[in-house]
Amino acid sequence: MKLTSLSDEIATNEAGHLTIGGVDTLELVSKYGSPLIAYDVSKIKSQINHFKQAFIDADVPYRVTYASKAFSAVAMYQLVAGEGLGCDVVSGGELVAALKGGMPAKRIEFHGNNKLPVELEMAVDAQIGCIVVDNFQEIAFLNKILKEKDTTISVVVRVAPGIEAETHKYISTGQENSKFGFDVHSGQAKKALKELIDNPRMNVLGVHCHIGSQIFAARGFVMAVDKMVSLLKQWNEEFGFSAKLLNLGGGFGARYVDSDQPSPAEDFVEQIIAEVKKKISEANLEFPEIWIEPGRSLAAEAGTTLYTVGSRKDVEGVCHFVSVDGGMGDNIRPALYQAKYAAILANKPHALKEQIVTVVGKYCESGDILVKDALLPITHPGDTLAVPSTGAYGYTMASNYNRNPRPAVVFCENGESKLIIRRETYEDLLNYDLGL
Ligand SMILES: Cc1ncc(COP(=O)(O)O)c(C=O)c1O
Ligand SMILES: N[C@@H](CCCC[NH3+])C(=O)O
Questions:
Q1: Which of 30, 302, 364, 417 has an alpha carbon 20 to 30 Å from 60's alpha carbon atom?
Q2: What would the CATH number be for the domain defined by 41-299?
Q3: What are phi and psi of 302, to 5 degrees?
Q4: Residue 326 Cα, ligand 1 centroid: separation in angstroms?
């Protein structure tokens, strides 16, 4: 089934303005300033429910863990914790934010290929749900910390299953030459498992893999299930190891432009469950809890960045540049991954679209392009330009390049808006700069 066009799905009000969560986007900009990242909270909740419901319908044990690198904000942790999800963190900073957002420590898992000793210590002190162990150095660091503190922790073994996800090479992580996880083929993963199960301070809950990000079809996950279950079978035969959980990571795709056609959340989950059921029963293993870690698929489509149009440059017969007051500092994805976005003129979304323009930011880089071929009505300075689907890996990858402050972020729902991250000020930017 082909998804409808994004521009057919936009919501507008009586004034003919684009709305987000029932709030007029022009009012948002006038109240909170520009650029502004506005989330439609109902979209986040609806995606969460689609993932959860598919597990509930299949009546299998599961956990949905939000990959918080997609959008790490105290309010977001509060929201997902309230919806019953866990979260994964990849740094001390994300851990602190998750705890501040009231995420129960036992629902937190810690990922990363180079967890610092101080971060491992924070995780142990908080007694989080599990540490997803990535390499031998980490096992050594963790062992030392556990000994010093005379305590224990639950762990999960991250393996690189040797699967190349069909996505951009920078966001593909399951292949053998990935920097993440223990390689299966060379026997590293088996050696790691042995070390962990022999360590009385580490309680091995199961295995984890993550094949990549922005994946549209379940095929790669089904292949990952096959590899992981065959690994579990070997480990069961060799070590009597029985996994309590099988974590298949995140990577479920989101829609940025019309040509993106990701499978719906429930399709991914249904196909994963069917394959786990089949393979686990063939291998005659105990049925594990199935964990998934969606990040982008929960946050991306819920977020829209609102910019104000400034200058323009027309090179007749070549191109038309429309500049906005943000750019690669709030959305690095086009420059980093050639990611594609759409643009909507929020003050008159239904006006005749008569020009193809290049929407560029205000940063001193020629690559600071937000939308390459945006079909828009004629724009004027002061117009509000909306770039949809910026809710994942936008704010979290933002920078202060050119000493531009990072934007504010609001949550919108049922016609109400709430500021959840305030705009940085020039004073904020000078906070750490001590001078001579
Ligand atoms: C281990 C792990 N889990 C989950 C995710 C979330 O991925 P996505 O945002 O594509 O769902 C990532 C990021 O790619 C990851 O590295
Ligand atoms: N930051 C990436 C995804 C990385 C996923 C994390 N392993 C993106 O914007 O698409």
A1: 302
A2: 3.20.20.10
A3: -75, -20
A4: 26
pLDDT at 178: 78
Q: Is 358 helix (H, G, I), strand (E, B) or coil?
A: strand
Quick one: pLDDT at residue 313?
96
pLDDT recorded at residue 173? 60
Distance CA 248, CA 250 (A): 7
Instruction: Compute φ and ψ for 402, nearest 5 degrees.
Output: 60, 20
Ligand nearest to the CA of 90: 1
For the chain (length 436 residues), average pLDDT per consecutive 10? 71 97 98 98 98 98 98 98 98 98 98 98 98 97 98 97 68 68 93 98 98 95 96 97 98 97 97 98 98 98 98 92 98 97 97 96 97 96 98 98 98 98 98 96
Between CA 47 and CA 39 the distance in angstroms is: 13
List the catalytic residue out of 87, 130, 319, 364. Answer: 364
Whole-number Å distance, alpha carbon 287 to ligand 1 midpoint, is 24
Q: Which fold has domain 6-33+302-430?
A: Lyase, Ornithine Decarboxylase; Chain A, domain 1 (2.40.37)
Ligand index nearest the alpha carbon of residue 249: 1
CB 360 within 8 A of CB 326: no
364 flagged as catalytic: yes
Ligand 1 binding site (Cβ under 6 Å of any ligand atom): 67, 70, 88, 111, 173, 210, 213, 249-252, 293-297, 392
Two tokens at 346? 């929020």
Largest pairwise CA distance in the chain: 72
Question: What is the ipTM for the molecules in this complex?
Answer: 0.98
Instruction: Record the tokens describing residue 92, joined without a space.
Output: 């001390």
Strand segments (E) across 104-191: 108-110, 130-133, 153-160, 182-183
> Which residues does 238 contact at the CB level (< 8 Å), separation at least 6?
190
For 297, other C-beta atoms within 10 Å of its C-beta total: 28
Q: Where in the chain is the domain with CATH 3.20.20.10?
A: 41-299
Does residue 170 have a known ligand-binding role?
Answer: no
* Contacting residues for 27 by C-beta, under 8 A, at least 6 apart: none
